[in-house]
Amino acid sequence: MRYLILSDIHANWEALQAVVEHATGRYGRILCCGDIVGYGADPNAVTDWVRANAVTVIRGNHDKASAGLEDLDWFNPAAREATLWTINNLEPGNAEYVRQLPKGPIPVDGFQILHGSPLDEDEYLVGIGDAGQAFPYLDRQVTFFGHTHVQGGFVWTMTRIEPIKAPMQTGEKRLEVEPDSVYLLNPGSVGQPRDGDARACYAVYDSETKVLDYFRVVYDVEGAQAKIRKAGLPELLASRLALGR
Ligand code: ZN
Question: Which phi and psi angles does 234 have, rounded to 5°?
Fold first, then answer.
């Protein structure tokens, strides 16, 4: 089965639409590693789409917060304001859906998905040191994670840990899973990339051949920004989309 792996959509409908259009014909099922909502101005359109299309979805920290399950003192001011806006704007059915999302890790077809790290959904796996602490807790060869909004991940070859770089200019990169290595793979953020590339991110994983394809897709950043400004959300949340930061 080929899986479309999405993470950190963050209520960005323009980015999600571009990803789905670009991915057409490449996958059979859809998975999501959390943070459907928060930051962006389209929480209902995005949640409706995820509810209708994704087969396995776990919650992210912003989903947890937008469902009223998190103390907002841990959020920076822009994230807190966006969370309160999301709580006020999520339709009841979507709010209930977000509230009941399970916590990762969740096994899927021989691999697993989680949001932050295997031990803590709020923990960021940024560097090799973070990955080194996480690898011993993985009980699958392949794990997909999100939360950092940085496409790529890490591979543990049993002698060392190496970062996996995101595709650059071409917007495409293929990775073949090697038999004796363990992988932490980040499809990147659909709706708010933070690796200096404004293009939306996704990945497609074939569970039979164990081949992963990373993609970057140009989307209507200005359209998403206009909606954030019109909603009265913090300006930072609009401007950062153009920078991919
Ligand atoms: Zn996120």
Answer: -55, 135
Q: Which ranges of the chain have pLDDT less than 50?
A: none
Grouping H, G, I as helix, E, B as strand and the rest as coil, residue 180 is coil
Ligand 1 mean position, distance from CA 71 (Å): 16
CATH number of the structural domain spanning residue 90: 3.60.21.10
Other C-beta atoms closer than 10 Å to the C-beta of 178 total: 12
Tally the domains of the chain.
Answer: 1
| Residue at 215 is within a domain | yes
Q: Is residue 152 part of a domain?
A: no
Question: Domain for residue 149, yes or no?
Answer: no
Q: How far is the CA of 72 from the centre of ligand 1 (A)?
A: 15
The boundaries of the domain holding residue 224 are: 2-114+167-179+188-243
Contact status, residue 113 vs residue 143, Cβ threshold 8 Å: yes
Distance in Å, CA 150 to ligand 1 centroid: 10
The C-alpha atoms of residue 186 and residue 149 are separated, in whole angstroms, by: 8
Q: How far is the CA of 242 from the centre of ligand 1 (A)?
A: 17
Is the Cβ–Cβ distance between 135 and 182 less than 8 Å? yes
pLDDT digits (tens, 9 = 90+) for 147-195: 999 999 999 998 999 999 887 788 999 999 999 999 999 999 999 999 9
**pLDDT number for residue 50:** 98
